[in-house]
Amino acid sequence: MTVRGRWGVAVTALAVVTALALLLWPHPAGPVDVAGAAGRHQVRLVVETPAVGARDLTVEITGPEPVDRLVVAAVMAEMGHAAVPVTAVPVTAAPVAAGTTAPGRFRAAGVEFFMAGRWDVAVTVHGPDGAVEVVLPVLITS
């Protein structure tokens, strides 16, 4: 093989390695938006930046009953990790349709995700009839 041929192979190999590195390099994930039902309430959970660290979570709730308290707890069951539960505070009240109480939007500040991977976020809605819970999956990146 000639010197020119060796240079061609080296440049091609370098281009392939560079392309693979760019394709496989971790990218910041977009917001996570998951929903589920907690009893008669519909719960929507939004994590704007699903990355390792303390994150503020937004929880939107609609349903026929008022919400007295809302608690968010993140658990990574596969690894035996659990973050300290956080009591969410109301941010805004949602408009009320006929025959429905819409408790609105809540912010759970500083929910700690201290490792990348799948976390289960339990949202517990406390109301006049007791507590109901929904567990929503969230993928956290590094």
Q: How many domains?
A: 1
Name of the CATH architecture: Sandwich
What percentage of amino acids are in beta strands?
over 45%
Q: By helix and strand content, what is the structural category?
A: alpha+beta
**Major sheet, described briefly?**
9 strands, antiparallel
- Helical coverage, percent range: 10-25%
Protein name: YtkA-like domain-containing protein
Organism: Pseudonocardia aurantiaca
Please tell me about this protein's structure.
- This is YtkA-like domain-containing protein.
- It comes from Pseudonocardia aurantiaca.
- The protein is 15% helix and 54% strand.
- The longest helix has 22 residues, at 3-24.
- It is elongated, with a radius of gyration of 22 Å.
- The chain has one domain: Immunoglobulin-like, CATH 2.60.40.
- The protein has one helix spanning 3-24, and strands at 32-38, 41-47, 53-63, 69-76, 81-82, 86-92, 101-113, 117-127, 130-140.
- It starts with a helix and ends with a strand.
- The protein contains one helix and nine strands.
- The protein is an alpha+beta fold and 142 residues long.
- The mean pLDDT is 85.
- β4 and β5 (81-82) form a beta hairpin.
- Strands 1, 2, 3, 4, 5, 6, 7, 8 and 9 form a nine-stranded antiparallel β-sheet that branches.
Short descriptors:
142 residues, alpha+beta, Immunoglobulin-like, nine-stranded antiparallel β-sheet, 9 strands, 54% strand, elongated, YtkA-like domain-containing protein
